[in-house]
Amino acid sequence: MFHGKVIDASKGTISLDKAQKFIESQQCGASLFFIGTVRNHNNNKQVTGITYDTHDSIVEKSFKEISDEAISTITAEHPIIFIEHAKGYLPLGGISIVIAVAAKHRVQVYDLSRFIIEEIKKRTPVWKKEHYDNEETTWLEGTPVLDK
Q1: For labelling alongside 114, which of 72, 93, 100, 122 has CA 20 to 30 A away?
Q2: Residue (of 13, 10, 11) closest to 98 by Cα position
Q3: pTM, whole model, 2 decimals?
Q4: Tens digits of residue pLDDT in 7-41
């Protein structure tokens, strides 16, 4: 099972309860959550928040492709994958991404989660604009989108 979605921060928040309910299964003996949050510093600057921008359908397609690759690369029984990424402005501590995975064994969920977050960081087009305590903002350089 798979769920992948972009959540507009002006309309709602990423729900850990929703993620937990989605991955619950009596076939799975292990589950794991990766939660990315907005931190208060980057590159020696005091960060007050981040604005994320996405082209939702491309990002959601990327989530599905990465999840399919994770499942085909990592032998996992009954894998369940939930991914949500925020779009819009998030203050300090705001949840930017949740990856929740469940599978039969613990090593499988660790491997799936690590694979998914690393590939999202490399391949998924999500742009970040940092807001600083001096009211400046900067769009951060990202990793170029790879051609397939």
Answers
A1: 93
A2: 13
A3: 0.93
A4: 999 999 999 999 999 999 999 999 999 999 999 99
